[in-house]
Specification:
Strand content: under 5%
Shape: elongated
Distance between the termini: 25 Å
Helix content: over 70%
Oligomer: single chain
Largest sheet: none
Length: about 25
């Protein structure tokens, strides 16, 4: 949880891309 929270705040762009990745597959 802590890691996910920090990662999301650090790289908000990556979070969006991650959401699109499974959708594309």
């Amino acid at each position: 949880m802590y890691s996910s929270r920090r990662f999301r705040i650090k790289s908000p762009n990556t979070f969006s891309a991650s959401s699109s990745w499974p959708l594309s597959q």
